[in-house]
Design brief:
The complex is a heterodimer. Chain A is of the alpha/beta class. Chain A folds into two domains: about 5-235, P-loop containing nucleotide triphosphate hydrolases (Rossmann fold, 3-Layer(aba) Sandwich); about 245-330, ACT domain (Alpha-Beta Plaits). Chain A has helices at about 50-55, 80-85, 105-115, 120-130, 145-160, 175-195, 205-210, 230-235, 240-245, 275-280, 310-325, and strands at about 5-15, 20-35, 35-40, 65-70, 70, 90, 165-170, 195-200, 215-220, 220-230, 260-265, 285-295, 300-310, 330. In chain A, α3 packs across α4 (about 120-130), α3 runs parallel beside α5 and α4 (about 120-130) packs across α5 (about 145-160). Chain B has a single domain, classed as MetI-like fold, CATH 1.10.3720. In chain B, about 45% of the residues are buried. By secondary structure, chain B is an all-alpha fold. The radius of gyration of chain B is 20 Å and the shape is elongated. Classes of the chains: A alpha/beta, B mainly alpha. The interface of A and B includes residues 56 and 141 of A. The structure holds adenosine-5'-triphosphate (ATP) and magnesium ion. Magnesium ion binds near residues 49 and 170 of chain A.
């Protein structure tokens, strides 16, 4: 049984500005286990950044407890907190590198803060640069690097002090899909090879699908759902999770009597030509409005939104056909 | 112009340079830390401290709003205490320094404010102490802007040094005043004024160039 890196118990965060109060986190309790990649996903303004910032006490919680390997962060004195922060690295959407320092000097920073001697520092920084594949840029200044390269430098910097956990706040949001993929692959490799626990904040489903083991869904400051990515994505229970997994359908039925359904299938059935079978066996035609398949942990999941024929009897026949085939069928409310 | 006047002007240039150099240097010795203090204690910053910020902020504001000529006169006893005299090139360095400190402090503060908050957040998340963050994150990142501000400050001190000539300071200002104002020798006055303008321009250009070179 692996140990908990983080245990959050009933965490609340209230911002107070000019007499105005805003509850950004409401009663959040969750655990992050050693060695996993834990995703935190939610809409903009949901409180993801606030949550991740409580994990290294960049933000103080208003009530509740944030424990890091069993130590309550709120109880640490400033000096102890700085020590603990050597074990908690963070990368940011805006990279936050020192523009006036070279790549290698940037990577050395956390080691310098920890008081590592110069020679050792340089060696370690070079090793990290190799991990992220940027040996050639050692003496370059960050302003001459692309976004993806900057984030690699930031990752190298984050790894330099051998942290126990890596926090990523929208680390790929400023990058294009291809570079995002590369950075995520790199994080996955680091997670596996270094057994580093990684916590990823994102508003993109694709990021969670690609590398996370477990995911927490945050909705207006509440923890809506938490669980294995497979479970949450194939069977979302909360409204917020459903909204993320099944983004609302942009199409309307073509006739007022038309009915939309959503069918959800798992890896096994994704390969079955069930629409063709339907037409063949019942002679009824459906209109595919949207289809979406994705691979979660190597297993294919998918969903499809179909428009059914106008006749209620036909509609029932189609639904029955899919249900008989073991597919999950749900009605789509266009105004959901 | 006679040889005598030419020699006077040459030594005037030297005196002006010496006053400007030392007054700038000393004003940074005090003004830079003061600017850092104003920055770190202001709202939402690293070592937010309302009381300290208000006290020092008020002192700086009061000093800055005094016209420099008034400051020159007010400081005569203090200048005499420090340098043993209240006239001449060396004596002028005292009021010039005092007059420049608040300007430097505010300039430094505004340069530091330009540093991206994300950089400071990164430092904090790495476990850097506030002092380390200032020395190794904030100041290096603000360096190009500090140099730029530095050029403006030095040029200002140079302008003030000409004013110091009014109450017995040395330098080109004093020469312009003596020959131009009291003796109506306008050629001398225009020469000194031209020299002052050229010096300000050179300082400004060098500052801009250095800042540009430094900005990666
Ligand atoms: N310093 C602050 N003072 C007051 N309110 C704040 C502060 N920081 C954040 N908030 C509010 O808290 C809520 C959550 O903010 P947070 O930055 O955590 O959202 P987020 O989920 O990270 O969003 P995004 O995806 O846009 O980054 C927002 O409504 C925001 O306006
Ligand atoms: Mg955010």
């Amino acid at each position: 049984m692996s140990e908990n890196v983080y245990t959050l118990t009933n965490v609340y965060k209230t911002y107070r500005n000019d007499g105005k109060e805003f509850e950004a986190l409401k009663d959040v309790s969750l655990e992050v286990r050693e060695g996993e990649i834990f995703g935190i996903i939610g809409m903009s303004g949901a409180g993801k950044s606030t949550l991740v910032r409580t994990l290294n006490r960049l933000e103080e919680v208003s009530s509740g407890k944030v424990e890091f390997y069993g130590r309550d962060l709120a109880e640490l004195k400033q000096k102890e907190l700085r020590e603990v922060r050597h074990d908690i690295s963070m990368i940011f959407q805006s990279f936050n590198l020192l523009n006036q320092r070279t790549v290698i000097e940037n990577i050395e920073q956390p080691l310098r803060i920890a008081g590592v001697p110069r020679r050792e520092r340089r060696d370690k920084a070079r090793e990290m640069l190799k991990v992220v594949g940027l040996e050639a840029k050692e003496n370059e200044y960050p302003t001459r690097l692309s976004g993806g390269q900057k984030q690699r430098v930031a990752i190298a910097r984050a790894l330099a002090a051998d942290p126990k956990v890596l926090l990523c706040d929208e680390a790929t949001s400023a990058l294009d899909p291809k570079i995002t993929g590369e950075i995520l692959d790199l994080l996955k490799v680091i997670n596996e090879e270094r057994k580093l626990t990684i916590i990823i904040i994102t508003h993109e489903m694709s990021v969670v699908e690609k590398i996370c083991d477990r995911v927490a869904i945050i909705d207006e400051g509440n923890l809506a759902e938490v669980g294995d990515v497979k479970d949450v994505f194939s069977n979302p229970r909360s409204k917020a999770a459903k909204k993320l997994v099944f983004p609302s359908n942009p199409f309307d039925p073509s006739s007022p009597d038309g009915k939309l359904i959503r069918i959800v299938f798992d890896g096994l059935r994704a390969s079955e030509p069930f629409i063709a079978n339907l037409v063949e066996q019942t002679g009824l035609k459906v209109n595919i409005l949207s289809a979406n398949t994705r691979s979660v942990g190597g297993i294919g999941y998918g969903q499809m939104v179909l428009e059914l024929p106008a006749d209620p009897a036909d509609q029932k026949a189609v639904v029955d056909f899919f249900k008989a085939g073991g597919l999950a069928v749900s009605e789509v409310n266009t105004y959901e | 112009m006679s040889d005598y006047i030419i020699n006077t002007i040459i030594s005037g240039v030297w005196e002006t340079l010496i006053m400007t150099f030392f007054a700038s240097l000393f004003s940074y010795v005090v003004g830079l830390p003061l600017g850092v203090l104003l920055y770190v204690t202001s709202r939402g910053r690293l070592l937010e401290n309302r009381a300290v910020n208000i006290v020092f902020g008020t002192i700086v504001n009061v000093m800055r709003s005094l016209p420099f000529l008034i400051l020159l006169v007010l400081l005569i006893p203090f200048t005499r205490l420090v340098t043993g005299s209240s006239i001449g090139t060396v004596a002028s360095i005292v009021p010039l320094t005092v007059g420049a400190i608040p300007i430097v402090a505010r300039m430094v503060e505004s340069s530091l404010c330009e540093v991206q908050p994300g950089i400071i957040e990164a430092a904090t998340s790495m476990g850097a102490s506030p002092l380390y963050t200032v020395l190794h994150f904030i100041l290096p990142e603000a360096t190009p802007s500090l140099i730029h501000g530095g050029a403006i400050n030095v040029a200002t001190v140079l302008g003030y040094s000409a004013m110091a000539g009014v109450i017995g300071g040395g330098g080109l200002g004093a020469i312009a005043l003596q020959y131009g104002y009291y003796r109506y020798q306008s050629d001398v006055m225009w020469t000194t004024v031209t020299l002052l303008v050229i010096m300000v321009m050179v300082i400004q250009e060098v500052g801009t160039l250095l800042a540009k070179k430094k900005r990666k």
